[in-house]
Design a protein that fits this description.
By secondary structure, this protein is mostly helical. The protein has one domain. About 50% of the residues lie in helices and about 0% in strands. Helix 1 packs across helix 2 and helix 1 packs across helix 4. The longest helix has 13 residues. The relative contact order is 0.24.
């Protein structure tokens, strides 16, 4: 799938799924970290691997600001 094409191997779908909680919980970054860890078994540190190459955003059919969201997830650590 287009969301799984990150050259750094970042699990974008799982990170963005968890980011949705940030919006739904009025900015609770800890809820994002818990969902990543407990539901997906993914570390938030994965978001820090982003090199901002933009490949994910070019391929995203929803035109999401993925790089910006990964930076925000990384700030919750």
């Amino acid at each position: 799938a287009y969301c799984d094409s990150c050259p750094e191997g970042i699990p974008i779908p799982q990170l963005l799924d968890s980011y949705n909680l940030f919006i739904l919980t009025n900015g609770d970054g800890q809820a994002v970290l818990r969902r990543l860890r407990n539901h997906w078994g993914v570390s938030a540190e994965e978001a820090t691997k982003c090199t901002a190459c933009g490949q994910c955003e070019l391929l995203c059919t929803q035109k999401l600001p993925i790089i910006e969201r990964l930076e925000e997830i990384a700030s919750f650590i």
